[in-house]
Design brief:
By secondary structure, the protein is α+β, with helices and mostly antiparallel strands. It has one domain: 2,3-Dihydroxybiphenyl 1,2-Dioxygenase, domain 1 (Roll). It is about 20% helix and about 35% strand. The strands form two sheets. It has an eight-stranded mixed β-sheet with strand order 2-3-4-1-13-16-15-14. An eight-stranded mixed β-sheet has the order 6-7-8-5-9-12-11-10, with helices on one face.
Length: about 325
């Protein structure tokens, strides 16, 4: 069985964070993303699930968070077996804007050069490792524009994720069978792309032998999702994983806005495969996106109790 062409690229990145208000302020007001969906963690109704993305939350623009403050979750350790860094894509000649904007808001930055490009590294309030890289070839519409962030500077979406791996060759072999191809190597970093190539379709493997083992918790990425056209494609991938690697994926999970399977790859990073549709307009109009708490039908009957358990915040 061949997986060729089934994986189109990235779908979203999901992280465990701390305070809901700090999270919304950081990603919408500072980074200029749109809160396209406010819901709850379907596996823990006491915790929000925020989806940030472009105007309609197109796959590959989506960054999502679970704010777990005061829920008994420890501070995590970022390291091997995790998404070490989430990379956002911005237009050419915009990095100075973002450097100044972050520093003016008290966010420390540093630069690192990889693959002939400058990556602007920084952290959010929960300690997540983030970066911005210029990509003038990224043709996706801006995530969102504000009075302070124009189209010329606005983030386009997720560019790539950096996986920290103790035994990178094993994971590189897996990813190339999974649907990514090695594009270029630079020291401890290897950039892979799907057939669609470029921003939103790229994964970077980092040799993590000098890093600690990652421990899930606040300030860590929980999983990275890769997009497919249909759930039938996900089932093919699930069968392939079991047959070729002995990897057991979960049953299909209905996430309302997409359907997913989950599994751990060699190296222990948690992967999700998510369908591109139906998308975030199934229960809100474009104008309404992110303006109120949305719940799936099976949780709607508990809305009153769910809302009582959630800490209010201001958009």
């Amino acid at each position: 069985m061949s997986l060729k062409g089934l994986i189109k690229g990235l779908h979203h990145v999901t992280a465990t964070v701390s305070d809901a208000q700090e999270d919304v302020d950081f990603y919408t007001k500072l980074l200029g993303q749109r809160l396209v969906k406010e819901t709850v963690n379907f596996d823990n109704e006491k915790v929000y699930h925020f989806y940030y993305g472009n105007e309609i939350g197109s796959p590959s623009t989506i960054f999502t968070t679970f704010p777990y403050k005061d829920q008994g979750v420890r501070q995590g350790v970022i390291g091997n077996g995790q998404v070490f860094e989430s990379v956002f894509s911005a237009p050419g000649n915009s990095l100075d804007f973002w450097r100044n904007r972050l520093q003016n808001h008290g966010i420390g930055t540093k630069s690192e050069h990889r693959f002939g490009k400058e990556f602007l590294l920084f952290e959010d309030f929960s300690g997540l490792k983030l970066s911005i890289v210029e990509d003038s070839n990224d043709q996706r519409e801006p995530v969102w524009t504000t009075s302070e962030i124009t189209k010329e500077n606005a983030i386009r979406g997720i560019h790539s994720v950096v996986l920290a791996i103790k035994k990178p060759e094993e994971v590189l072999h897996f990813l190339q069978n999974f649907g990514y191809k090695v594009h270029v190597k630079d020291g401890k970093f290897t950039l892979l792309e799907t057939d669609e190539q470029g921003a939103g379709n790229s994964v970077i493997v980092q040799d993590g032998r000098d890093l600690p083992d990652g421990i899930n918790g606040l300030g860590t990425v929980h999983h990275v999702a890769h997009r497919v056209d249909s759930i039938e494609d996900s089932i093919k991938i699930k069968e392939h994983l079991q047959k070729e690697y002995g990897i057991s994926a979960t049953e299909v999970k209905d996430r309302k806005y997409f359907k997913s399977i989950y599994f751990r790859i060699p190296g222990n990073v948690l992967f999700e495969v998510a369908t591109s549709g139906p998308g975030f307009l199934v229960d809100e109009t474009n104008e309404e996106l992110g303006s109120s708490l949305k719940l799936p039908e099976w949780q709607e009957i508990r809305r009153e109790q769910i809302e009582k358990n959630l800490e209010p915040y201001e958009r």
